[in-house]
């Protein structure tokens, strides 16, 4: 059981990647990409976890209790916010593609077109 | 100039959907096998070996007088990484604004001349009441989470996004157009730029007063107080400002796209 | 691993294919919102409450809004 989180992270990665590869709509592609990103958050947090550890916030617990790793939590939480803005940028690109080419199907967006 | 939409000439050499899927399934299995093999070399879940994290947990509270070690990591121990992340955010919002700018064949117009008959104003009275009533508490909550970032879970990142959702509430209440008159776009951009600049300036202040860039040079109170932990507070506020400005800008750009920008009458359709 | 963690992991593992399998982008946006909530619960069971907060605010509120707005604009030009 102790490898379950990492196995689930691998599963989510592959599922999201499948969505990206076989996508027929640019927005669907972008959302699947964000699913791939979420697998990395799971992996990071899985690495930093200590069994029965508490959260690394010592307001109401004495400072020497066993706590989980704070560095990966810091990385993940900034990453979630910044990842959302990058996703927004990709969506803006999709909107622009629709405006310029009239389609959001990746198959029809031929680089040599127009 | 070919017409937009419509028929596309599929080249004969293009890979069909079924082939692509089969190709992925094969390579996906190989990738999965490699990853599972890597899994074998990892420590088990809960079996934490890293020394850095243990050290930080032990040391952060007495050193920084902050009880939220994660915020301490974000804004002090690894403040430089946060600076980098912030600029990723800045750059992508900038890119988004550039992409969605008003194009030559579009103009601003009132949203009621809409061919598809979509309603823009006219949220029901119950929705309006609830959203307007919730805007105040949301902003207060956001400020609370930012200010208490060094003590309880939270900090500039989460609080900034919550503040941006206050704008979302206004949009849901149907008052977006009224707000737009009150909240000019340059103000939002200034907010975002101020946040980013403030982060850097506080770091430079570290250079002036202390030894290293972004070093924590303000006096630290006792742990558990709101104004303890030195520069983490102002840094948290700076990040919150930037994120709020960034997300508000994103939302406004998209909202402008749907509500306000209309194709100029008589433009060629592409 | 506690029972809560196992359940949360299972939910997330089931949620990810559900997000990808929803081909209609509108439906997918709603699924993505729910997936953000599931992730938040998972992070919470991993003793990371602030990461959960971040995930819920972004993944359930901000991101689906942006997606829906982009979809509104894309669907608008469908003629």
Overview of this structure, please?
The complex is a heterotrimer of chains A (114), B (270) and C (79). By secondary structure, chain A is an all-alpha fold. Chain A has a single domain, classed as Helix Hairpins, CATH 1.10.287.3510. Helix content of chain A is 64%, strand content 0%. Chain A is elongated, with a radius of gyration of 19 Å. The model of chain A has no long low-confidence stretch (mean pLDDT 80). With 270 residues, chain B is mainly α. Chain B has two domains: 5-39; 68-263, no CATH class. Chain B is built from nine helices and two strands, in the order H-H-H-H-E-H-H-H-H-H-E. Chain B has helices at residues 17-39, 51-64, 69-77, 79-99, 125-147, 156-172, 176-182, 185-209, 232-260; strands spanning 106-108, 261-263. Chain B has a two-stranded antiparallel sheet. The radius of gyration of chain B is 25 Å and the shape is extended. Residues 1-13, 111-120, 221-225 and 263-270 of chain B have low confidence and may be disordered. Chain C is mainly alpha-helical and 79 residues long. Helix content of chain C is 86%, strand content 0%. Chain C contains three helices and no strands. The longest helix of chain C has 28 residues, at 49-76. Chain C starts with a helix and ends with a helix. Classes of the chains: A mainly alpha (114), B mainly alpha (270), C mainly alpha (79). Chains in contact: A-B, A-C, B-C. The interface between A and B is large, with 62 and 71 residues.
Question: What is the makeup of the main sheet of chain A?
Answer: none
What percentage of amino acids of chain A are in beta strands?
under 5%
The parts of chain B where pLDDT drops under 50 for at least 5 residues are 1-13, 111-120, 221-225, 263-270
Mean residue pLDDT of chain A: 80
Domain tally of chain B: 2
Which CATH class of chain A is shown?
A: Mainly Alpha
The percent range for helix content of chain B is: 55-70%
Quaternary structure: heterotrimer
Question: Reading side by side through the largest sheet of chain B, how are the strands ordered?
Answer: 1-2
Please, how many helices of chain B? Answer: 9
Proportion of residues in β-strands of chain B: under 5%
Question: Which topology of chain A does CATH recognise?
Answer: Helix Hairpins
